[in-house]
Amino acid sequence: MDCDPAMTSLTHALSVDVEDWNNLVVLNRTGRIVPPQPAVVHNTERMLELFQAHGARATWFTLGEVADAYPALIRKLADAGQEIGVHGYHHHLVYTLTESAFREAIRRAKDALEQAGGQAVLGYRAPAFSIDARVPWALDVLAELGFRYDSSVFPFRGRRYGDPRAPLTLYARPTRHGPLMEVPLTVVDWGSRRLPCAGGGYLRHFPLAYTRWAMRAVERRRRPAVIYLHPYEIDEAYDADFLHQHLARHERRGFGRVRWLQYRGRSRTERKLRWLLGHYRFDGLARVFGLEAAPSPARVAASA
Ligand SMILES: [Zn+2]
Q1: Is the separation of the CB atoms in 54 and 277 below 8 Å?
Q2: What is the pLDDT of residue 263?
Q3: 138 C-alpha to center of ligand 1: Å?
Q4: Which end of the chain has the least Cβ crowding within 10 Å, N or C?
């Protein structure tokens, strides 16, 4: 252990966006919906085993289509004491949906996940962090459907997403149906810059030394880190037959670069993940941020 033992009293938040990489490629390239493939089960189970070996719990923000196709997977996560959250029904970006389509998708996903897992779902994360000023109704819909928190804000200036003015820690957001808590993804404020470090591509592409530096920085600020991963990030194979079957030749154009970006570093990701799990304590977002019960007015006012 090379981290300062005096600084390891924090429990950090771990989250996994549960989606199948194969059907996601088809959706992103063609708009066509095909069923999630069994790889999502295999990879999610492998990640769960890795977490359990280190006594870590997480929030698994899962697509409703995965719950409907593989309900036993959701039950397995719930039985293991893990938190289940919603990641949409299909992986549609929120700002491509109408308000009523979003409401129906989220209601359907929440029902599927609660049925399969046998536990109330409290949290939501948008596909590709796609809640922004274009969809001012999104948080109202989440509060209306009984969600306690959202975790869709990446508080930095990203190329495709992010809000560089958003708060860095838990805060309350007003909605027509009462406050909804927001749990932002972790960035490290470094001088006037905000640097993403919270997992996903940032964990995959950057060296372990960067992750170690970032974890030390958030611990110094006494902020729990909010880390996100995908089950396929520890998978080194992809289903070439499936993609050939579902994508026409012109739809595969440029695929080599996408595959390079999204597969590069996967073998090292597991090593970095094991390092994180070995050095820090992790739990799901609701437990880390005390969001299991409805927020009291005093608590909301204090964190607003
Ligand atoms: Zn996603």
Answers
A1: yes
A2: 64
A3: 17
A4: N
